[in-house]
Amino acid sequence: MAETENNKILEVKNLRTYFYTDDGVVKAVDGVSFDLKKGETLGIVGETGCGKSVTALSILRLIPEPMGKIVEGEIIFDGKDLLKLGQKELQNFRGNRISMIFQDPMTSLNPVYTVGNQVMESLVVHRKLSKEEARRGSLKLLEMVGIPEPKRRFASYPHEFSGGMRQRVMIAMAIANSPSVLIADEPTTALDVTIQAQILELMDELKSKTNSSIIIITHDLGVVAKYANRVMVMYAGKPIEFSNVDNIFYKPMHPYTIGLMKSITRLDEKNRKKLKPIEGLPPSLIDLPKGCIFRIRCKYAINQCKKEYPPLVEIEKDHRVSCYRAKEFMDGILERFGN
Question: Model pTM?
């Protein structure tokens, strides 16, 4: 079925979020555009510091001011630009229609309130339930996310929970009001592998039940491969490749994305090779190089890469790439996964 404009639940257009420091202006997010369709999972990937989390925080307008500022862009949700709303009107969307699972549940949960009270708060504020109604709703949520003995654990404090259990509480809080969009910022950071799988399966199951859309921010390409429908690859604050998950993994057209694919451990004998890290380091976001910001680490760079930043253009249907040599990768002139 062909996609239509009505499929889009969220549109981010030319988003720029800067931080003003004593050393200069940090262009943490610099021209990010993407859309999110109903019922899909969008993966946002890239190295630490590439702007993934700042993009998510910008959507909810949680950028710390006055140091941080959204200087340009549009965030269209339900026909409204969230960047133009007042704080009171924004509260109707934040935590209600759009929710976020933060990276570190220990610092996101309030240590002086019980887990149950923190889950109840969202139900009381947004759905105007009585305390007893909110309590019953909270117990159902804790049971839904797999908290054992929810009635007993309702009165527990965050420090009495394991990392995996705290993350489940964060998910319960995030889905309390059946949001249309759920943003998960590194939801499995610092969790062991078994718990990671449980948390991700839980999120996927909840998405199916509520038909919500998910933005999952991660550096784990295995997570993206299993759970995402489409992927946006970011580098130094900019989107550099955007397509469906199959294209990103099997037909990458940006040298940075290709480098990420080469860094994945393969267990099958046929494809088992020595891992090849991307040489060099990401540039300073205060002093970005002229032209393509990846060229200083790219063995495919040409003179044109030094002069002007390559625009994000559609090389083939639903596959956008910010690279002057992307078509050469598509046509097989340049090898993607060679030595």
Answer: 0.89
